[in-house]
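Lab notebook page, bench 4
Experiment: in silico fold of construct C2
Operator: M.H.
Input chain length: 123 residues
Purpose: comparison with the prior construct
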Amino acid sequence: MSSDPENLLEKVRERALALPAAAEKLSHGAPGFYVEKGKFFAYFSDDHHGCGITALLVKTSGLEEQAMLIEADPALYYRPPYLGPYGWIGLRLDQGAPDWDHVNDWLVKSWRMSAPRKLADAF
């Protein structure tokens, strides 16, 4: 678990809510980010069920991409419980200083997968 999950959440929140029509609400006790009147594109997870991990959960293109990411960098990526079977990936934020450009890239990619086509095309 990160020594400062609140600071990490604030940094994730700042980036997620900067995306067009993005909003936040709690989902199953965790902060979730979604496109207004649409789908979730990210969740912030801190010590979920005592796992000891602080992470950003985002969508991938599917299970194949998820497996490739985990194989390429298992210290950074993991298959999160519940959402993992649907192709979501966990991006660890508790392994030293996060690469915020990388985090932002994942937020944008996941947002594009969730946003209505017209909105995503305009972004």
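Observations: Residues 100-114 form the longest helix (15 residues). The chain has a mean pLDDT of 94.
Next step: discuss at group meeting.
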